[in-house]
Amino acid sequence: MVWFSVPALLTWLLLQVVWSQPAPETTEIDLDGGIDQDIFDINEALGLNLFEGDIKLDGLQGRNSIIGDNYRWPYTIPYVLEDSLEMNAKGLILKAFEQYRLKTCIDFKPWEGEKDYISVFKGSGCWSSVGNRQQGLQQLSIGANCDRIGTIEHEFLHALGFWHEQSRSDRDDYVSIMWDRIQSGYEHNFNKYDDTTSDSLNVPYDYTSVMHYSKTAFRNGTEPTIITNIPDFTDVIGQRMDFSDYDLQKLNRLYNCTSSLSFMDTCSFELENICGMIQSSDDNSDWQRLSQVPAGPNTDHTNMGECEDSGYFMHFNTSAVGEGSTAVLESRILYPKRGFQCLQFYFYNSGHESDQLYVWVTEYTSDHPNGTLTLIEEIRGSPADYWQLHHVSLNVTSKFRVLFQGVRGTGVSNGGLSIDDINLSETQCPHHVWHIRNFTHLLDTSPEGTAGRIYSPPFYSSEGYAFQVGLYVNGTSDNPFNLAIYLHLISGANDDQLQWPCAWLQGTMILLDQHPDIRQRMSNQRSVTTDPLALDSSSNYFWDRPDKVGSTAYFPNGTAFMRGPGSGTSAFLTHQRLRSRDFIKEDGVYILLTVEDISHLLSTQPSASPTFVMNNSSANTIRPTSTATITATPTTSTATSTTTTKPTSSTATSTTTSTATSTTTSTATSTTTTNPTTRLTTTTTPITTTSVILTEPPATDILDSCSDNPCENDGICIIVDEAPVCRCPAGDNWWYMGEKCEKKGSTQENTVIAVSSSITVFVVMLIVTITSVVCLKKKYSQGKENSENLTLEESKTSF
Ligand SMILES: [Zn+2]
Fold it and tell me: Where is this region: Disordered (predicted)?
């Protein structure tokens, strides 16, 4: 018998524990437990009995409605993202604001002391009041599982003044309420208003509204509670993808919107004026407006040839001109407001691979009134018999034109270059695009479950993390007839240089609605955020290095790599919705991917550095109902600036640390109280600024209780529930914790803690390890043969 020294044995066992981490197959967790919970399901499960399921009424409010200017907000709504919010929710709220900026005239800004503002916090469930209640702080709750963009848009539409669509006075003409199928006690949720209290703004009843209940709302069994009088709409009601056209029409009417902040132009070339675009005089050929070209395209992209006497695109016939000939199509002059733009368009190359399309920008400034020409992107590639979506990022700050320059190359061309469905907006382009072609064939032939799962090509985030998206075409075995989608970290070239576990990257997966006009798209999306302290079922860090917590997988060319566990949803989109709108067009779907660092949202919002003005006169109080007499006077507005550091630890603002073995200070999460009357903004240096909601105490007491800062290690004292609380500083891979920030923690320690707790069961682990390694190898070789053959078409990184 061989005897080991105890330390050597322990070390060896530790290594075994670490080696044993890879799971046998790719695992996935569902953000929402795999249940497609609508707002009302979430709130009902929490036992909330709010008005119409998700509306908070105040004492003054009867069945008042959007009628009346008093209930409107200014065009720019001040908001605060409270510390209690989950990080994924914070990122998504900002994304929802971007949709408002693109499609309406409503804008949002971080609160800077304005009288009325919306405090978005993580309460129980998803809910809002209706309209501007003129009460100073107005709460809007984005609770657990409410972190979906459609849900957030829905709640903010309440705040902007809208009731549910099915409570319109004329709803009985369009839907039938099945009263006997409604849970008893919930019937009032199906009340309707007469037209003196609710204004439908002369817009038709909208089955597609994001404000409509689904057919299952408040049901007592399995039968629907709402039946649409036009049967085709039975499964349409209850969509939570994005605003419908009528939602936007109503919102824009109520707020007299004439333009939006970030939309610039859309053109499908259906009108003969080609949206004011012009043929340049500096070239030797022209683009033509056509509906068909013999060598392709056979149809335009807008209508796919389905509409008679319409369906045009712009074409540069390279087969008819000599080598080096060019044709330039210029946009009209455009006026940017934000300084960054995304240009997107569909491109078809039926010429030769040497034919090229260049995208230029002419920018006009006072120094260069005739314009400066800048080449933005060169698009080349082999001819293909389909339209391809392209994104081009611009960063233009002065008035400008976009130029499409086609250039005839050296090779033999039988066709040419075509463009269609251009959209220009002042938004961020998606980082990556996954185009899946022959999608109906995939739908028809893919089995449900893992055998019908396909993976995207690998992509890199700008921070260097490699990732991949998995898509179940016909659903998971638990949840068939749905698209299921998951985001995985995978092993990549930079892994040794990166911080692990991966911290606070938000991955957004968008199934693109390919409507030609970006404002009318109702794309479906979900986001996942990498919480560095989240653990999997084996107490590994969920977002740790894929070669540590992942399993072996293979690219189509046979190269092995490690794929980490996936996070996403098995209820991404029903097939019924997938087949609606323009999700599938030219038999292809596009999945747009963006992975961005949202760690700057860890800090308390607003991130401006306000200063205090003690003021005993009531004339300058934030709001009349407040008993405190403090006026917040922010000196700067830097809320949009981002920090580039990437803390791996959850700082005191995180609310998602409950599963961690060693978390941050426990005092961190309770910053919100009910019925707040005053918001007090404290001044802090140098680490964070912070804001707190107070209930009753007079201002002098508030300041006194923190006056002798009890916090150590540069911790900041703030008041929560009338008691002083320390906010502790955190760095890249360390943080302070404890009531006074007296203890220091680090990622390193956490790893040790996690591993050493496993040692207590090392004997069992050891046996399991040895057995499972054998099984794993078998499974891998099988998996390689049958399930890793991908049917991916292609990928394209825009930039
Ligand atoms: Zn609602």
Answer: 624-682
> Distance from the CA of 602 to the center of ligand 1, in angstroms?
28
**Ligand 1 mean position to 151 CA, how many Å?**
8
| Dist. CA 412 → ligand 1 center (Å) | 59
- What integer best gives the mean pLDDT of the chain? 78
In the chain, the N- to C-terminal Cα span, in Å, equals 63
Does position 109 have pLDDT exceeding 70, yes or no? yes
Residues with catalytic function: 155
Closest CA to 322 of 383, 406, 405, 410: 410
Distance CA 559, CA 489 (A): 17
Does residue 501 have a cis bond before it (omega within 30 degrees)?
Answer: yes
Measured distance CA(525)–CA(544) in Å, rounded: 25
Position 556 pLDDT exceeds 60: yes
pLDDT of 645 strictly over 60: no
73 in helix, strand or coil?
coil
Please list, residue by residue across 602-627, b when 16 or more beta carbons sit within 10 angstroms of its beta carbon and e when fewer do: bbbbbbbbbeeeeeeeeeebbeeebe
pLDDT 10s digits, 206-226: 999 999 999 999 999 999 999
Report whether pLDDT(421) > 90: yes
pTM score of the predicted model: 0.75
Tell me the two tokens of residue 394: 């611009």
Q: Which of 466, 435, 433, 436 shows the shortest CA–CA distance to 452?
A: 436
Which two three-digit tokens encode residue 294?
């013999």
Could you tell me the distance, in angstroms and rounded to a whole number, from the CA of residue 573 to the centre of ligand 1? 20
* Token code pair at residue 456: 């995207």
What does the pLDDT read at residue 195?
A: 73
Q: Could you tell me which of 360, 296, 358, 297 has the C-alpha nearest to residue 326?
A: 358
Q: Given this model, what pLDDT does residue 381 score? A: 86
CA distances from 481 to 445, 474, 476, 576 (A): 13, 5, 8, 8
468: nearest Cα among 484, 490, 451: 490
User: Looking at residues 556-578, what average pLDDT do you find?
Assistant: 95
**C-alpha dist (Å) from residue 454 to 449, 576, 784:** 11, 20, 13
pLDDT at position 233 over 90: yes
Q: Summarize pLDDT for 725-744 with one digit per residue, the tens.
A: 655 555 444 455 666 767 66
Instruction: Kindly provide the residue ranges of all beta strands, DSSP E only, lying in 271-340, ordered along the sequence.
Output: 278-279, 288-290, 313-316, 326-330
Torsion of CA 358, 267, 389, 30, to 10 degrees: 140
CA of 491 to the centre of ligand 1 (A): 42
For 547-603, what is the HEC assignment? Answer: HHHCEEEECCCCCEEEEEEEEEEEEEEEHHHHCCCCCCECCEEEEEEEEEECHHHHC
Question: Separation of 130 CA from ligand 1 center, angstroms?
Answer: 9
- Going by their DSSP bridges, the two strands 117-121 and 137-142 should be labelled as parallel
Residues 624 and 659: their CA atoms lie apart, in Å, by 42
Residues in the chain, total? 799
Tokens at residue 398, please?
């002065």
**Which residue positions form the known binding site for Zn(2+)?**
154, 158, 164
Q: How many CA atoms lie within 13 A of 261 on its CB side?
A: 17
What mean pLDDT is predicted for residues 105-128?
Answer: 95
Report residues near ion ligand 1: CB below 5 Å: 54
Ligand 1: distance of its center to the CA of 67 in Å? 18
* Distance between CA atoms of residues 292 and 287, nearest Å: 14
For the chain, how long is the longest CA-to-CA vector?
91
Which residues does 722 contact at the CB level (< 8 Å), separation at least 6?
A: 694, 695, 696, 697, 705
pLDDT tens digits, 448-490: 999 999 999 999 999 999 999 999 999 999 889 899 999 999 9
Q: What percent of the chain has pLDDT over 70?
A: 72
The whole-angstrom separation of Cα 712 and Cα 709 is 8
For residue 154, the CA-to-ligand 1 centroid distance in Å is 6
Element (H, E) at 175: strand 175-177
